[in-house]
Amino acid sequence: MAQAEPVSQDFVPVSVKSTSAQSEAKGFIEGQSLSGSTRNWYARERATRAPLWKYRKSDGSLHDTHSRDNWVQGTILNYSSGFTEGAVGFATEVAAYNAIALEQGRAAVAGPNNRTLTHSDGDVIGQWSKMGLANVKARVSNTTLTAGRQSIDTPVIAYIGNRALPSSFEGVTIRSEEFDNLAFDFGTFDRLSQRTEQGTSKFVAEYGDRAFEADHVNIAGVNYQPLKSLKTSFYVSNVEDLWNQYYFGANHELGDSSVLSLTTGLNYYKTKDEGKSQLGEIDNDTYSLSFGLTHQAHNLSFSYQQVNGNEYFDYLHDTNAIYLANSLLSDFNGPNEKSMQIAYVLNMAQYGVPGLKFNLYNARGWGIDGTHYTGTGYDVKKLDDENHYEWGIGTTYAVQSGSLKDTTIRATYTAHRASKNQGDGSLDELRIVTTIPFNIL
C-alpha cells in the first residue's frame, strides 16, 4: 500500500482565523443573490410479497395494493441578501417552494405518504406552495446567528433532501467559525416543515409512537480537525420528553488515491430517554465502522453496523439525522441488529467522461430481536431473529458545461427482501431524479 504524503498526517494547531467574514461583507444589496433549482422526482415501487400500501377509493373504501407510483416536480426559488457592512452585519434569506403532482391517481400514489402531498383521504393535491426558508441573520466576525425557518445539517438534526423538496426547521442557531480547525454549533427548534407538508408540525420519532410530540429540540456540537487527515465531531441533542442523544464521529484518510488510499469512518450514537420519557425507557448504543479503498477511478468500501438496544435506533421524523454507514433504503436499525455492506463506485472521469459515475452495493442485516423489550413506545416485541438484505445499482451524470452546467440526472434500482416481521417489507424501487439549478442574480 502506498504511504500518504507526510504532510497529510501533520498535527493542526488550534489557531484564530486571520480573516473575518464580516469584514469582507459587500452590503445588503451588493451581496444579494437570486437562485434556485427545479427537480423532477419519479419513483416506482412494487411489493414482491404481501401488499405494503393502502389507498382509498372516492367512495371511502380502503384497499390493499402491491404498487405505488409517485411523480412530482419540485421547484425552489431562493433569495439571499448580502450582509450589511460594519462590526455587526445583518442579512436575510427567503426561499419559496412549489410542488406539482404529475401523477394524481389515488390508486397509483397510495397516499397519504411522504412523497406526494394528499388530503387525509388520499386525494392528491395537484399543486401547492410554501415558504420553505424565511430567516434573518446577524454576524459578528465569523460567528452567525440565524433566526426563523432554516436548513441545518448536523448528526442530531438535519434536513432531508431526497424528495422533490427538502425539509426545514423553525428555530434559532449559532454557528461559530472563529478558528481555522474548530467550529461550534448551537440551536433550539420548535417546529419542523416536512418535505411533503404545507405548514409545520411538532417533532416526533421516526420509529417510535408518533402520538408523542416534542415541543422543543435543543442541540450543541463541535467540529474539530486535529490532523490534516482527521476530522472529528461531537454533538448532543435534547428532544424534550423523548430522549437525549450523543454523537461522536471521526473520518481519517491515508495514502494517495492515484495509487491507493484508505478512508476510515466511525459513527457512534448513545440515546437515553429523558424528562417524561413518553416513549418509555430508551437505552441504545449504535455504531458503524467503514473502510474505503480508492485507486484512481475505483472505490471499494466495507461497512459494519450494530445496534445495542431492545428498541430501534431512532432519530427525528422527516430528518436525515442518521449518520450511519448502512442507512440506505432501509436504515438497518432494528433492535439488536447487526449489518454489513459492501459497495463499489466507478468514476468515469478517469476514462474521459467527467461527471459520470456508477455504483452498486449489497447490504445484509441479521439478529433483529425485540423480544426483550418491556416498554410501549416501540412496536418491536414480535421481532424475533428477523433478517433482511438489500442491493442497489445506480448511475449519476452531472453536466460539466454550458447552460445546463451542474444539472444532475440520477437513476437507481433498489431491491429489498425481508423476513416476515422485519419492518421494511419486500419491495423493488426504480427512482429517476433530475435536478436543474439556475441563477438569476
From TrEMBL:
Q: Name one GO molecular function term.
A: porin activity
Q: Which GO terms describe its cellular component?
A: membrane
**What InterPro entries does the annotation carry?**
OM_porin_bac (IPR005318), Porin_dom_sf (IPR023614)
Q: What is this protein called?
A: Outer membrane porin, OprD family
Which keywords label this protein?
A: Signal, Transport
Kindly give the Gene3D superfamilies that the UniProt entry links to this protein: Porin
Q: Report the family membership.
A: Belongs to the outer membrane porin (Opr) (TC 1.B.25) family.
Q: Which residues form the signal peptide?
A: none
Recorded hits in Pfam families, A to Z, give: OprD
Task: Write down the species.
Answer: Pseudomonas alkylphenolica
Top-level taxon of origin: Bacteria
